[in-house]
Amino acid sequence: AQYAMVAYYVLGGPYAIQMGSNVRMDLLYGEWSDRRKAQVDAFTVLFLIFYLAVLLRGGWDSLMYSFQYGGERSPTAWRPYLWPIKVVMIVGFFLMLLQCISELFKDILRLKGAEI
Question: I need a surface site. Which of 7, 19, 45, 48 has the fewest CB within 10 A?
Fold first, then answer.
């Protein structure tokens, strides 16, 4: 169940960003103009892109470690292989990175006055 929840969480993140259902602090954000929102979103998504790139790199290294040493296993009594969930995590991080890059381009287009 724990591995299924990791998959739901990691793969649900890109979907939430795509649908615009991620949580924002509306105390100030709700009162801003569309241009101001696009400026702030374009700036803050850069930090998210950097963070996701670091997570992707770390996940890749962890996956390679798992394969290199003959299949890393969980230390529990069940002892499942860990590489399948690591693959799911990398796919989720990659999809979220692609979605964040898409959001950055959308914000740039909004700043230029394009209708999205």
Answer: 19
Tokens coding 13 = 């993140």
pTM of the model: 0.83
Give whole-number Cα distances, 57 to 37, 64, 74, in Å.
Answer: 30, 11, 21
What is residue 82's DSSP assignment?
A: S
State the Rg of the chain over Cα.
18
- CA 5, 97, 49, 27 torsion: positive or negative? negative
Report how far apart, in Å, the C-alpha atoms of 55 and of each of 21, 48, 90, 91 are.
Answer: 22, 10, 8, 11
Distance CA 72, CA 104 (A): 37
Summarised one tens digit per residue, pLDDT across range 97-116 is: 999 999 999 999 999 988 87
Cα 37 from Cα 1, distance rounded (Å): 38
